[in-house]
Every structure is written in C-alpha cells, then in structure tokens.
Amino acid sequence: MKMKKLNISISIILVLITLVGTTNEIVPNLIDGGCVNLLFNVGDKLNQQGLTYWDDNFYIGFDVGSNKGEIIKYSKTGIKSSSTGKIGIGHTADLGFRKKNGMIYVANGGGSNRTHVYEVDFNNKNITKDINLEQFGTAALLAIDNEKDRLILHTSKGGDTGNITFSILDFNGKSLEQQFDIPNQGIPQGLEYYKSMLYYYTNNTITCINVKTHSIVGKFHIKEKGESEGITLVQDGSTPYIAIGYKKNNRIYSIN
Fold first, then answer.
1. What pLDDT does 59 receive?
2. What torsion do the CA atoms of 172, 240, 139, 204 make, to the nearest 10 degrees?
3. Three-state SS string across 92-150, please?
4. Which helix (H) or strand (E) segment is 73 a member of?
5. Is residue 236 very low, low, confident or very high in pLDDT (cuts 50, 70, 90)?
6. Residue 252 in 3-state DSSP?
7. What pTM, to 2 d.p., does this model score?
8. φ and ψ at 134, to 5 degrees?
9. Residue 181's closest CA among 205, 203, 217, 154?
10. What is the DSSP string of 202-248?
11. Is pLDDT above 70 for 12?
C-alpha cells in the first residue's frame, strides 16, 4: 500500500477531546505532518458517491442513473464481495450503518432533490423503508449516532450553495432536538459522527462541528486530485480513524 505525506493545509490545529464520564477520549483528527494511506483503488468505474463502514468492510454507494443507486461491499484491500444491484435510492449521496438493526441508511442527496432517506437491507438487496423528509429541503447527507441510536440529517433550503441545517431525528423522521444552522461550507460530499463531533466533508475540506454547542471548532483542507466523495469512521482497532473517498479515479484513503 502506498504511504505518503498527507497533503493538508491546516486552518486551525485541532486537538479534539470529548469527555465521556470521567474518561478523556481523543476524537480522530488530522495533525500537521500526518500521513494519508491509499487503502485501495475502487475497481468499479461507476459514479462513486456515499461511503460507510462496518465489520471489516467498506460499503460504497454509486449513482447509476434513472434515480437509482447501487451499494457495493468491499474488503479493506478493495476486494469486491457483493452488491445490492440497482435499487431506487436516487443519487446515493451518503450512507450510514445503523448498529441496532444492521441496516444501511441512504440519503438521496443532490442540490435539487427533495430529501428522502432510505433504509436498505443489504443482504436481501432491497429497500425496507422510505423516510420522506421532503419538508427539510434538498442537499441531503446523513450520519448515524450509534451511541444514542439517532439519525443526524444535513439539508438546505438553498440547494448545494445555501446555508446548512442539521436536524437530529429518530428513524421515523421525528425531531429529537432543536435544529441548528451553519453557513454554507462548499458542495456537500459526506457526513460522519463520533462522540459529539460531526465531520462534514465538502470538496477537499473537512469541517468539525460540535453538536452540543452547534459551533464549528475547526477545519482543514486535503489536497488530492479528483472530487471528494464520502466519509466514514473505521473503529476496528484501538485508535479509530477517518476514511474518505475520491472519484476520477475512484479510490479510498485512510487518514491516521
């Protein structure tokens, strides 16, 4: 595997610490001088979009046209093992794995597409629920808080260039907490959550947002070729790390 210096320009040096009871846990972060690891080039040449991870496997979403998407499962070395085939999940902008029921949730996304979140049974290759959230606007992304079993939704009333609203919901679309807004940060490409922190991926930029204070605590820029597509957290070992996707050509990196 290829290891090289991480191409980052730091806007703010981040040391992100979350208190859990009396234990200090370091949230995954990028540090000046760190490394990016090219995990694998994605063999499929489809229109790569959302990304999630669970149990030693990456799940990558692809927009295959005609309002359909496909989710393909890969090992950490890029070996393709199975797929949903083409199903009606739209642009397939973002994916999240829900630990409680083993389902993958898909945000359709897109600056002009009214928001839907689809519950997908990957093993049976079908959609089990369509959560209609059109009232929230467009540009949907999602993250799953598996600690509290809740859905965190990113939307905008102004498409890809409008201000951003974050909503914390149950898995029927009921609001659990007050919404909060942030200014537009760029074209939305992915969202992940870990211990009170949102990792919001736009083109070549990750913005860190504290969901308790509703504040941006820092951002940094990643200078890789191609278009940013998808972000997820890998928690296999003792130190969790972020993985991100790019297309043109399709590939997955780890950041640690």
1. 98
2. 180
3. CCEEEEECCCCEEEEECCCCCCCCEEEEEECCCCEEEEEEECHHHCEEEEEEEECCCCE
4. strand 68-75
5. confident
6. strand
7. 0.89
8. -60, -25
9. 154
10. ETTEEEEEETTTTEEEEEEEE--SSEEEEEEEE-SSSS-EEEEEEET
11. no
* Longest Cα separation, the chain: 51
Per DSSP, 89 falls in state: -
Q: How does DSSP classify residue 248?
A: T
- Beta strands 23-26 and 68-75: pairing type? unpaired
Other CB atoms within 10 A of residue 64 CB: 16
Question: Token pair of 185, please?
Answer: 């940060």
Closest by Cα among 233, 240, 248 to 97: 233
Residues 6+ apart with CB under 8 A from 31: 13, 14
Pick from 164, 139, 141: nearest CA to 152 = 141
Q: Cβ(140)–Cβ(133) under 8 Å?
A: yes
